[in-house]
Amino acid sequence: MGEAAAFFVDHLENGHTNGFGVKSEEDRDTSVQIGDRSYVIGGSHEGNPLFLGVKIHDKTTNEWSIPTVLGTGPKPCKGYSAVVLKQGRILVIKKGSASDDSIWFLEVDSPFVREQRKLLGKEVVAWSKGVRGNAEKPIVISGPSGVGKGTLISMLMKEFPSMFGFSVSHTTRSPRCMEKNGVHYHFTDKNVMEKEINDGKFLEFASVHGNLYGTSIESVEVVTDSGKRCILDIDVQGARSVKASSLDAIFIFVCPPSMKELEDRLRSRGTETEEQIQKRLRNAEAEIKAGKSSGIFEHILYNDNLEECYKNLKNLLGINDDAPVNGVEVEGINLPKEHTVTKKEDKILIQETGEATKNDMIVLDLASINGGAPGRTRGIVLDTVKSS
Ligand SMILES: Nc1nc2c(ncn2[C@@H]2O[C@H](COP(=O)(O)OP(=O)(O)O)[C@@H](O)[C@H]2O)c(=O)[nH]1
Ligand SMILES: Nc1ncnc2c1ncn2[C@@H]1O[C@H](COP(=O)(O)OP(=O)(O)O)[C@@H](O)[C@H]1O
Predict the structure, then answer these.
(1) Can you tell which superkingdom this protein's organism belongs to (predicted)?
(2) Distance (Å, rounded) from C-alpha 270 to C-alpha 268?
């Protein structure tokens, strides 16, 4: 809880002229203006009652358009407050929603949106849910086939089950005998995956050892929403794409002690045919070279002795023996159903209105946020400032 603070607040008017949009409960749409465009947030998306709609009105042409919406957006509710932030983002606060579902960001001109607009050749906006609590970065782990990535990730998830969650990739390769669909991978057909890639559902994808692999935006969102730190096991091409995105991850490359040891591990795993082993070994040389020299990876781990390598992994993730095995709980704060919203630098001040007003103010601090679409916006700080 914070102290009563002396905020010097710019009281901004309701309406559409200054980037603020606060409307009554009966009027479910909220509109914000950025440059020549109005973004109307409300109703449902293309008739789907489960998905909040976004429409764009261009003042210069007087035309309406419905953009392609990336990421999983909020479900419709009874009204929204919206505030324009820097970097082409709109903060959307859902009225009367649970505290873990009330803070959202609609990215309309962020670097990710601009890149996707170019890539998909159409108008694009992207949702990113605001997640409270410590903003631990997602972890990208790459390395040649057989080096021990999966083994190290399993050890981490077993020791800290509530702290880490695995981003389940999509792949067109066939399942190995112990692999479960939806747990190790989402096993999928090439044409289905290609269509989903074209629909903008993937954060990254790459052709690896002759098959298509990719991380869907949803697979990262699911882990982040559960309050866990997301681990991605992806190849160097995928790591390069993630590095260029706004996911803001930590990048680790795992090296084998020698090519001979790598070959032995691949063979003793016994999951590939001889032809597949040869292909993986050929690709390994190039991957190791790229892993060491591309500048993508901040950390190179040598997996010689497994226990030692695991210890080094925990060290670089800042996990010591005192780390809470089950993560840190974030105190719940419910946002008032009826409220006004004011912006003061990085702080958003949410003041309850209506008969039951207690004059307490909720301060939403955006100073420490990171991440963003694709995926979640992490590190939101909410504090209640008591009226004196
Ligand atoms: N780019 C990308 N690579 C992935 C993804 N999922 C897995 N990979 C990589 O694909 C490669 C082959 O994975 P897999 O077939 O499970 O074989 P393994 O590495 O020998 O266990 C590995 O380098 C993985 O890191 C993904 O979603 N995207
Ligand atoms: N440090 C290590 N020493 C010996 N064997 C290892 C070591 N790390 C992993 N392995 C074994 O090597 C094989 C490949 O490991 P795996 O985790 O499947 O690799 P990857 O996910 O990188 O393809 C597995 O059989 C695993 O038990």
Answers:
(1) Eukaryota
(2) 5
- For position 306, which CATH number holds? 3.40.50.300
In a domain, 380, yes or no: no
Tell me the residue range of the domain where 190 lies: 139-317
- Using CA atoms, how far apart are residues 202 and 197, in angstroms rounded to an integer? 6
Q: Is the CB of 342 under 6 A from ligand 1?
A: no
**Complex ipTM:** 0.98
Spatial neighbors of 133 by CB under 8 A, at least 6 apart, are: 227, 328, 330, 378, 379, 380
The total of structural domains in the chain comes to 1
In-domain check, residue 297: yes
Beta carbons within 8 Å of 62's beta carbon, 6+ residues apart: none
Whether 187 is covered by a domain: the verdict is yes
Q: How far is the CA of 153 from the centre of ligand 2 (A)?
A: 11
Residues recognised as catalytic:
176, 269, 280
> Does the CB atom of residue 238 touch ligand 1 within 6 A?
yes
Digitized pLDDT (tens) for each residue of the chain, 388 residues in all:
333 222 323 333 333 333 444 444 444 688 999 999 999 998 777 777 778 899 999 999 999 999 999 888 888 887 888 999 988 999 999 887 776 788 999 999 998 899 889 888 999 999 998 887 666 789 999 999 999 999 999 999 999 988 899 999 999 999 998 999 999 999 999 999 999 998 889 999 999 999 999 999 999 988 887 778 899 999 999 999 999 887 889 999 999 999 999 999 999 999 999 999 999 999 999 999 999 999 999 999 999 999 999 999 999 998 866 655 555 555 667 777 788 889 998 899 998 887 665 667 889 998 888 888 877 888 888 888 876 6
**Smallest-distance ligand from the CA of 270:** 2
> pTM of the full predicted structure?
0.75
Pocket test for ligand 1, best of 166, 168, 171 (most atoms within 8 A of CB): 171
Is 215 a pocket residue for ligand 1 (Cβ < 6 Å)? Answer: yes
Distance CA 255, CA 267 (A): 17
Is 230 contained in some domain? yes
